[in-house]
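Input sequence (135 aa), recorded before submission:
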Amino acid sequence: MARYLSRVTCPRQLKCMKKIIYPLLLMLPSLTLFAGEPIVVDASASPIKSGVYRFDVTLRHSDEGWDHYADAWDVTAPNGEILGHRTLFHPHVDEQPFTRSLSGVAVPEGIDHVEIRAHDSVHGYSSQPYRVNLE
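Predicted structure, token format:
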């Protein structure tokens, strides 16, 4: 790029270069958004006792470090009530996808499925919940 700029002799060429470079520079702060939202790849529920479950959830996310990583997931009832919350305390940059568990989640009687919603430190909750049918 520097070589090309050193060959720019005409003010018109420089104006054209500015039209290209300035918009690209404006996009730099948003580059962390390219990691995207976290995706629930798989999830399962295992009954521990009547109405109480253990959830194993596998997430995929392009963790970039402490500034942008998948930092939690929730187990929610069909009405949106949060039944369980699993905090992820550190980035998983070199471990993708990864699975974490949450035990002791009480599910009210009459609920036949729940949804898992992943969360990351930049985008918040993922737009696509993952449905888990209960036994």
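Checked by second reader. Strands lie at 39-49, 52-60, 70-76, 82-87, 98-106, 113-120, 124-125, 130-133.
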